[in-house]
């Protein structure tokens, strides 16, 4: 079970050479009073450890080639209240070379740093740890007098891990696919439940019900359940309006399953039947999405899907008389941004907007087998005298999650329909 985590640590150690690396997990966060937000470890830390308790630090000792965990001690009194803790027995359970109590960190780190010429950490990401590590370095320099050198070279640990996380391994792909499947089923449930007169939050409840029932205790991000004009607010999350007969409903929601995110958007009619104008706009967005997905190929540049989608969207805007001119002219001027103002998608993994440099050092990189991306074009038509009134307040986005494979791609969130006929057929059954 923990072999893949061990393997990742070994790959990172190989890159570190003689350096030492320090990687704390995320802190617990108070929500209000003495109640906490649900605890979620740091994604980089989880990627390398699989260890989900708070107050833990991973240290990779490049010289010794060892992975060390510092974690909470066992504490029978606390465990009565808050549940099981591994304590340093985590070493065996998670395959670390050594594990120590977190209270030993301050004492053990400086002499360990003094053994290494280079230090990697999450530079500049978390001021608390920057200051702490500066303190350890000062102590290590004092110890350098007795024949050891403190690190003189510093590097950004996350840049190394980001590159690893960009290419998903087999275990990650299986978990992502499961997150995608549960998320897709939740969207189906929402489509089936939707009726005019319901509240947006009642549809949100259908999504959350399906997530939790399937072991995905949290959504990967705040669910967007946006009826009618609310769909034109890109990050709408109030979810407290009534759903009107004749309006569309845009749902952007995905679960987090075993740490990995799903991120799906569907837009469908509240009453189960698209109007003529809704249909016209929808077909443009769907065609753009399909064109963009077709452009996700190993070896294709990362910006190929955006270009493919944009041409289809702009042609559609011209056909619908939202804009006038030529496709190239509108792309050149950027006028399309009145109706399409976000990117085509993002990597997805442990984080919904996952890590990975898209243009390392300048030029776009290419898709490689094992990358996972969303494809999510949209059109959002706010009331505007220059636009035919039938289109006012129509907001449509269609989003799927796509794995790059050796010979193409796999859309693994397609258990929820997106063709108009399929959506109407599904909703008619209920
Ligand atoms: N749900 C966030 C996004 O689509 O990027
Ligand atoms: Mn989304
Ligand atoms: Mn997305």
Description:
- This protein has helices spanning 3-16, 43-49, 76-82, 90-94, 105-113, 127-144, 157-166, 170-193, 200-213, 276-294, 304-319, 327-333, 420-428, and strands at 20-24, 30-32, 35-36, 57-61, 66-71, 98-101, 118-121, 153-156, 218-219, 224-227, 248-253, 255-257, 260-261, 264-269, 372-375, 378-381, 394-397, 400-405, 408-411.
- A hairpin with a 2-residue loop joins strand 12 (255-257) and strand 13 (260-261).
- The chain has two domains: 2-165, 3-Layer(aba) Sandwich (Creatine Amidinohydrolase, Chain A, domain 1), CATH 3.40.350.10; 167-429, Creatinase/methionine aminopeptidase superfamily (Creatine Amidinohydrolase, Alpha-Beta Complex), CATH 3.90.230.
- It is α+β, with helices and mostly antiparallel strands and 430 residues long.
- Helix 5 packs across helix 6 (127-144) and helix 8 (170-193) packs antiparallel against helix 9.
- It is built from 13 helices and 19 strands.
- It is 37% helix and 18% strand.
- The structure holds glycine (GLY) and manganese (II) ion (MN) (2 copies).
- Glycine (GLY) is lined by residues 221, 252, 263, 346, 352, 376, 399.
């Amino acid at each position: 079970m923990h072999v893949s985590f061990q393997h990742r640590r070994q790959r990172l150690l190989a890159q570190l050479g003689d350096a030492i690396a320090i990687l704390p997990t995320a802190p617990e966060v108070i929500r209000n009073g003495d109640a906490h937000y649900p605890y979620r470890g740091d994604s980089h830390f989880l990627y390398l450890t699989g260890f989900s308790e708070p107050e833990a630090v991973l240290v990779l000792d490049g010289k010794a080639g060892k992975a060390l965990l510092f974690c909470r001690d066992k504490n029978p009194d606390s465990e009565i209240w808050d549940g099981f803790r591994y304590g340093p027995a985590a070493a065996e359970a998670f395959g670390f070379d050594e594990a120590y109590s977190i209270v030993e960190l301050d004492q053990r780190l400086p002499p360990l740093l003094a053994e290494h010429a280079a230090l990697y950490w999450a530079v500049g990401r978390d001021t608390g740890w920057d200051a702490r590590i500066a303190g350890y370095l000062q102590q290590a320099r004092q110890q350098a007098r007795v024949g050891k050198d403190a690190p003189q070279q510093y590097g950004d640990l996350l840049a190394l891990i980001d590159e690893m996380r960009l290419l998903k391994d087999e275990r990650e792909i299986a978990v992502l696919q499961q997150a995608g499947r549960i998320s897709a089923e939740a969207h189906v449930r929402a489509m089936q439940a939707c009726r005019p007169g319901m509240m947006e939050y009642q549809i949100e409840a259908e999504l959350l019900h399906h997530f939790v029932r399937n072991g995905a205790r949290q959504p990967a991000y705040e669910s967007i359940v946006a009826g009618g004009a609310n769909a034109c607010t890109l990050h709408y999350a109030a979810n407290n309006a009534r759903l009107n007969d004749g309006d569309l409903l845009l749902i952007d929601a995905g679960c987090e399953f075993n740490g990995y995110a799903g991120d799906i958007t569907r837009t469908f009619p509240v009453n189960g039947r698209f109007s003529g104008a809704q249909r016209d706009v929808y077909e443009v967005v769907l065609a753009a999405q399909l064109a963009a997905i077709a452009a996700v190929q190993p070896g294709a540049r990362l910006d190929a899907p955006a270009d493919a989608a944009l041409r289809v969207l702009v042609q559609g805007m011209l056909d619908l008389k939202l804009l006038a001119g030529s496709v190239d002219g509108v792309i050149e001027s950027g006028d399309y941004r009145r109706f399409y103002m976000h990117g085509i998608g993002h990597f997805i993994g442990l984080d919904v907007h996952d890590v990975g440099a898209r243009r390392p050092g300048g030029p776009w990189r290419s898709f490689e087998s094992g990358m996972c991306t969303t494809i999510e074009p949209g059109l959002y038509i706010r009331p505007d005298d220059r636009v035919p009134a039938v289109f006012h307040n129509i907001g449509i986005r269609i989003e799927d999650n796509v794995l790059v494979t050796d010979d193409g791609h796999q859309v693994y969130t397609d258990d929820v329909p997106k063709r108009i006929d399929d959506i109407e057929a599904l909703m008619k059954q209920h």
